[in-house]
C-alpha cells in the first residue's frame, strides 16, 4: 500500500494553485476539468514523482467539510504538515513573500515547527525533524 495523493480542502482552486506554486514552491502535476471544478494536484519540486497534494474544493460541495475545516482553522490546528530542511529558513523566505504565520519557528523536543495560513482555509504546519 502506498500514499499517492493527499487531499487538502480549499475555498478556491485557482487561488490555492497560485499560493502553493508561487509562494510554497510546489509545481502543478495534474489539472483535469471535472465539471465546474478540477482534479488539481501539486507536487514538491524535489520529489516530482512523490505524493501529490490534491487542491480539493470540498468545502464548496459538502457543508460538514466546510464546518470541520473552519473549526480546525479557528482552533489553530494545522490541517496537514510539510517537512522542510530548516523551519527558520522557510519561515524567513515565506514571510518575505507575505505569508502570514500564526506560530513562528518553535522548538518542541526533537522537532522545530511553524504554522502558516494557506489563504484557502487551512493552517499548515512546517516541521523540521532533528
From TrEMBL:
Among Gene3D superfamilies, the record links this protein to: 2,3-Dihydroxybiphenyl 1,2-Dioxygenase, domain 1
Superkingdom to which the source organism belongs? Bacteria
Where does the VOC domain start and stop, copy by copy? Answer: 2-129
Q: Name one Pfam family in it.
A: Glyoxalase
InterPro entries assigned? Glyas_Bleomycin-R_OHBP_Dase, Glyas_Fos-R_dOase_dom, VOC_core
Q: Which SUPFAM superfamilies match?
A: Glyoxalase/Bleomycin resistance protein/Dihydroxybiphenyl dioxygenase
Protein name (database record): Glyoxalase
- Upper lineage: Bacteria, Pseudomonadati, Bacteroidota, Sphingobacteriia, Sphingobacteriales
Amino acid at each position: 500500500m502506498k500514499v499517492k495523493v493527499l487531499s487538502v480542502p480549499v475555498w478556491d482552486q485557482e487561488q490555492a494553485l497560485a499560493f502553493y506554486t508561487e509562494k510554497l514552491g510546489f509545481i502543478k502535476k495534474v489539472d483535469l476539468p471535472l465539471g465546474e471544478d478540477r482534479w488539481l494536484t501539486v507536487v514538491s519540486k524535489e520529489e516530482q514523482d512523490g505524493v501529490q497534494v490534491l487542491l480539493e474544493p470540498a468545502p464548496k460541495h459538502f457543508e460538514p467539510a466546510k464546518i470541520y475545516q473552519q473549526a480546525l482553522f479557528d482552533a489553530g490546528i494545522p490541517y496537514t504538515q510539510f517537512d522542510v530542511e530548516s523551519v527558520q529558513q522557510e519561515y524567513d523566505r515565506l514571510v518575505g513573500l507575505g505569508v502570514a504565520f500564526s506560530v513562528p519557528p518553535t522548538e518542541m523536543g526533537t522537532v522545530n515547527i511553524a504554522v502558516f495560513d494557506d489563504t484557502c482555509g487551512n493552517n499548515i504546519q512546517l516541521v523540521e525533524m532533528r
